[in-house]
Amino acid sequence: GDSVTQMEGPVTLSEEAFLTINCTYTATGYPSLFWYVQYPGEGLQLLLKATKADDKGSNKGFEATYRKETTSFHLEKGSVQVSDSAVYFCALTHSGGGADGLTFGKGTHLIIQP
Amino acid sequence: DVKVTQSSRYLVKRTGEKVFLECVQDMDHENMFWYRQDPGLGLRLIYFSYDVKMKEKGDIPEGYSVSREKKERFSLILESASTNQTSMYLCASSSSIQYFGAGTRLSVL
Asked: What CA–CA distance (Å, rounded) separates B11 from B21?
């Protein structure tokens, strides 16, 4: 079956540091890929997505590129802020129309120190 | 804005009780989902529904059932709650992107 692997956390960085959170996946075909973010006490919010190979998703300074050859979708941000502290989930689905569930990684807890 | 509302943020129940978790969405989405979130395990799909009165098992359906009598409402039912069902439960609805509710933290004592 499908699976998503994320780097283990917590990841602790100083404000304005460069961020990379690794995500690799195992799936047949060409799934759609997502990054979701969960702030303390809240549900998940979509951060960005990519639906085909070489697509780059971006939002709020975060970026991730769909790499079919390495089955990866690493999340990056050039300069993190304290407000970026949250748990980040990489996920995939085979349904472009949203009819199937998402397969999630275990989540990476990011802590940004001032 | 899409709104997915879960009726309770926190719930405490006793072993053996029948528990209902309610979820309502306001975007006329066809598809709705129930996940549970546990530390170190991420989110796992319990059940989903792509239409009224339709349901599909997800990855971990054992011990749960669901009800979708109206398009906007999707209920998760624990027929006889057990301590290993203590968890955070997240509801989502989608057309092409899944939108999540704030979650219900259930404790079964």
From this structure: 9
